[in-house]
Amino acid sequence: MRFLAPFSLDMVDKLNYIIMKYLFSIVITATMLLSACSNNAKEQALIKQQAIAAVKDSLKLDSFKKSEVKKQEDAKIAAQVKEEKRTLLLAERNEAASNSSGNQNYVAPAKKKGWSEAAKGTAIGAGAGALGGALIDKKKGRGAIIGGVVGAGAGYLIGRDKDRKSGRVQPKN
User: Fold this and answer.
1) How many structural domains is the chain composed of?
2) What is the tens place of the pLDDT at every residue in 38-65?
């Protein structure tokens, strides 16, 4: 404080007051600028989050619209299938009525498609029996043969019964 000797204490206090006032205003201004920059970053992050949420919501809405369109298309297809079944049933009834009036003893043979249940049962039973026989018996070949024959017979009987119930094979009288 030697260099301030020619000044009075009141002047020194006033000078200190003015310097402190300027320093305080500079610190306040710097704080405000820095806080404004950080608020801007926070606002931008908030805007990004809102945009992401909006995009996700629009995607959900879009998927809901797609599912509604899919439901409507499925309903149309179901209605078409139902109408086709009804048309076929009416055609079969009309055909049966015209055939029954012309020839009383004639029975139309059932349409046969693909493997019968008896054939499927035989194949599945033979495979399962052979596998089971090979696993159970100590002599693998003998067990597989015996298991295959027994499984094929059981599968055939079960499949034949299913064929009779479905009408593919006429039941025994």
Assistant:
1) 2
2) 666 777 788 888 888 888 777 777 777 7
